[in-house]
Every structure is written in C-alpha cells, then in structure tokens.
Write a structure and sequence with these properties.
By secondary structure, this protein is α/β, with parallel strands linked by helices. It has helices at 71-79, 99-109, 122-133, 152-163, 195-201, 217-223, 234-245, 273-293, 299-302; strands spanning 58-64, 86-93, 113-118, 138-141, 147-148, 167-176, 179-184, 190-192, 213-216, 249-260, 303-311, 314-322, 325-330, 334-340. Helices cover 28% and strands 27% of the residues. It contains 9 helices and 14 strands. Strands 1, 2, 3, 4, 5, 6, 7, 8, 9 and 10 form a 10-stranded mixed β-sheet that branches. Strands 11-12-13-14 form a 4-stranded antiparallel β-sheet.
Length: 342
C-alpha cells in the first residue's frame, strides 16, 4: 500500500537495496583518520555549558564504547556540520580502550563537544544519559563508528522547521568493506501524518534505525520515550513508539548517514540464546504494538524467529512464530512440524 503523502511533492520513500545506486556524494572526511592536535588537558565529563548560552538547535547524541580507532571519523564529520548551532553529547559507556581520551581531546578543541562517562550499561542506557543532558530543540542519534554528511543537520533541521514536523528523516547508506548499499534513500521532500504512512515511508519494518532521524526533544519528553536498558535491539520499541505517537514526519533528500557494518556490531556478532530471546521479544512486542495502533503489517513481517539451531554458520533448524502458530523449519525452508500456541 502506498503511503498517503500530504505534500505538494510526490512521495518517494526508501528505495530497495540496489548495488547499482551511485555512491554517496560525500566520502569519508580526509581528516577523519587523524586525532586533533593540541593540549592534553581535558574538561571534566560533568562540565555544564554556561547558563547564558542560547540552547542549540540540534543535540547530537553519541554513545561510545571501545571505538577509539574509529571515533575520529565520527567526530570530524559532526564538527564539520554546516549548521553551527549544535552540541555534541558524547557518552562513554565504560570503554576500556582510549575512547574516553579521544573524547576529552575533542572536548578541549571545541566547546560544542560535551563528554559524559558512566560504567558500562550498554547502548540504551548511554543514549538515555545523552538525552537527559541534551538541550537542543531537536535530537539526532549517531553511533560512534559511523559518520554523517556535512549538511545533514542543516537540511534535516530546515525541513523540520519549515513543515513544523516532529521528525525529519534522511537517507542511510550502509558500508560493508568496499561495498555500499542504500538502506533508506529519499529523493523528494514529502510529509506524512498518519501512523501507517510514517511506518511505510521509512521502511519500518524491516528497518528499525533510529539513526538519521531528527526528533523534536519536547515531544519525546512529552511521550516519556526512553530506550530500554540492559538489552539488545532497544531501537525496535523506541522507533515504533516514535513513529506511532509523534506528529508529522518529513523525508529529506540529499544528506546521508553512513552506517558501517562491523562483525562486532549487535546484529553481526555471534548469536547466543539471550540475543535470540531479546530479538524475539522486541519483534513480538512490536507486532503487538502495531496491531494496537492499527498499523497493518505484511505477512512476512508477522513471522518472527523464536529460536534457531545451527552448526558452522549453517542454520539447521528454526522455530518460527506467526499469529499464534509455531512452525519448525528444516534449513529454514522445509516445514516439518506445526502447532498452535496455547
């Protein structure tokens, strides 16, 4: 079903993955692989900005954990933003490498960089801590091993203000080694006001990126929206509520978020029983939420994996759940047993 776009422009939401798509306009910043020069003196992680300062237009929230070698790429892209009225709230989540040292050096270089540190509580807690410290009109979540185009904040903020939107969404490009693939790509500015249209516009499901989505902070506070802490797949419930309960959403062509796929990431790291259970619960709760607010889901997105067993990277047996029915599948293809839940 095509979303009902409420704009003078025709809506072109996320395009499917295509390797033939051209590479993003902005490459990795050339300065991104070198740390800033300057004093080793670092400002305290608890330093508050002067009360006389005008609140920034955008607060960029960056959770950080053991990415010292990749962190300069991210921070250089944030400091290069054409929108100057920003703050960069970095939350070190108990890193055991040099990440906190790198953050302190950038904070000494540019007063817009604020550094918080906490014991390791995982990404959801780090994002919540950054949000609690944020002062901007809008917030933008960026992962510490990714980067954004220089005009991202300016164009997302400009579109949000023009349309009085609670959320402005930009394109996302995934980098895996030397290959590039668009995960979301918007080619025209369009407005969506109905929940079902907002979900479809950003291809959710299957994509649950909170990344490159500029969100009005006051609305998030009004909704009491928080990331679940201590679990993986915390993005799923957060984005579902944001799309379901915030106001107008505008898609913004042009600037891209550059998402780096790494083996150590939540999605790519080794599967464990706990990880499988957390993914199942997140998707199960998402389906229940979508049903509750009247957002239709395609049958393939109602079928979720409850557990699977494999060997040497090959899935041998998978247990799927769909609308109260369980199915065991051999090699994720041949159904061998069906049963009803309860």
């Amino acid at each position: 079903m095509k979303p009902a776009a409420h704009s003078a422009h025709s809506a072109h939401p996320a395009s499917p993955d295509r390797r033939s798509d051209p590479a993003p306009e902005h490459p990795i910043p050339e300065t991104a692989f070198t740390e800033p020069s300057g004093t080793e003196t670092c400002r305290s992680e608890n330093t508050e900005p002067p009360a006389s300062e005008c609140p920034p237009k955008v607060s960029i929230i960056v959770p950080v954990y053991n990415v010292a070698e990749l962190l300069p790429v991210c921070l250089e892209s944030l400091l290069a933003q054409t929108l100057q009225a920003i703050e960069i709230v970095c939350v070190d989540d108990g890193s055991t490498d040099r990440s906190l040292e790198v953050l302190r050096r950038y904070a000494a270089r540019d007063a817009r960089v604020r550094v918080l540190s906490q014991e390791n509580k995982r990404q959801g807690a780090a994002r919540n801590a950054g949000f609690d410290a944020a002062r901007g009109e809008y917030v933008l979540y960026v992962d510490a091993d990714d980067w954004i185009d220089p005009d991202s904040c300016e164009k997302l903020y400009g579109a949000a203000v023009r349309h009085r939107a609670d959320m402005a969404c930009g394109s996302i490009c995934r980098h895996r080694g030397r290959s590039l693939r668009w995960r979301n790509r918007f080619t025209e500015e369009a407005i969506y006001d109905a929940p079902a249209a907002r979900f479809e516009a950003v291809a959710c499901p299957p994509q649950f990126y909170v990344l490159h989505k500029l969100m009005r902070r006051a609305k998030l506070l009004e909704l009491g929206l928080r990331f679940e802490e201590g679990v993986q797949y915390e993005d799923v419930g957060y984005l579902a509520r944001a799309l379901g309960e915030m106001g107008w959403l505008v898609t913004v062509p042009g600037p891209a978020y550059h998402y780096v796929s790494r083996r150590s990431s939540t999605v790519k790291s080794r599967q464990t029983a706990r990880k499988q259970a957390e993914r199942y619960r997140a998707l199960h709760d998402f389906i229940a939420y979508a049903d509750r607010i009247g957002v239709p889901l395609q049958p393939r997105y109602r079928s979720i994996t409850k557990r699977f067993y494999g060997c040497f990277g090959v899935t041998i047996l998978k247990l799927k759940e769909c609308d109260g029915r369980l199915t065991w599948r051999l090699f994720d293809w041949i159904p061998v047993w069906h049963s009803k839940i309860g």
